[in-house]
């Protein structure tokens, strides 16, 4: 396994395990809020086996959070990792105080202490301010979560005491907050930063949403300050592992044997200042494939990079909704299955079978298929048309999607199809 070096000399595997989509006993994954979640127990034995395989093959970085997998990820991860010597792995977890009720100094400190207990450790290797840069007023949101309550200063103290080995943040959104973080590097000495980087967002994130930062810019700013980058969303929530045949053909022409996911992972890990790339690997076969890809990691040629840029432009031409299925928008107070609606829509768009032209010879077949898939994926009482536009979901979306507008658009579209 290829390794990279942290600011304190840590030898970190270039592939990191994102403990956000852990396997369940029913064969699914336990990310986010799911109806009937009590029946979707995490498969502890499978997680144990995945971590055993990871450590045996050199993968040593495990990223979790108090809010992942309905609050169970840290506990499950702690059980699995504690079976191995503490010096053999690095734990990353987060100050996930997004809920206003958790932002007091006492509650935030309690969250940190609970993470130590759940993870069965007395120190955290990589600790993050979780998902900064979002909210209706991003600067005020950041201040409320980390400054007004004194929690950032307290975390710096924990680093001095050795209870945190590296202090950083995961970033989504506002350039205002990004600039503050960069301007205050001299004060807080960020040991690492977690950013969204993939071959689409590298140059085109701002084109999708003007409030986003291009990955190339964010990465460059970290390089200037000597801050290692941890990469999230290398596959855009899995979207870069499944897209239309014209797009996939560009990558298959480079190597017919390479998976679409492998190109995305190689791109994300290619820049030299990248410490590790996180992948949420629910199934053992995904873990085995990714470990093999990074053992050792093969650098990308200029021709391969140019082809990936062509693929990025082709991907953007599809006009899919940039949902990464993180489930941060859930639960909807009015019962909508937001990820289910968006994923069904995106699949039809990416496969060029959205029934939007009644004069198209394939309209009838595509109409039937879309409505069948939509009804199977989204229960009647959780469909897009039930959205009242409260906007609560928008505040929590790391991709800054105007979810209310998309729900209205898709709801109107489905109604037209049903009445056609």
What does this structure look like?
With 420 residues, the protein is α/β, with parallel strands linked by helices. The chain has helices spanning 44-56, 73-81, 105-118, 138-147, 151-160, 175-183, 185-188, 201-208, 215-225, 245-252, 260-269, 284-293, 302-317, 338-350, 363-377, 392-396, 403-419; strands spanning 3-5, 11-13, 15-18, 61-63, 90-95, 124-132, 164-171, 192-196, 229-232, 274-279. The chain has 17 helices and ten strands. The strands form two sheets. The protein has an eight-stranded parallel beta barrel, surrounded by five helices. Residues 32-39 have low confidence and may be disordered. The protein is globular and about 70 Å long. It starts with a strand and ends with a helix. 43% of the residues lie in helices and 12% in strands.
What would you call the shape?
Answer: globular
**Largest sheet entry:** 8 strands, parallel, barrel
Q: Structurally, how many domains make up the residues?
A: 2
Instruction: Kindly report the name of the CATH homologous superfamily of the largest domain.
Output: NADP-dependent oxidoreductase domain
Taking strands numbered 1, 2, ... along the chain, how are they ordered across the largest sheet? Answer: 3-4-5-6-7-8-9-10
Reading the helices and strands in chain order gives EEEHEHEHEHHEHHEHHEHHEHHHHHH
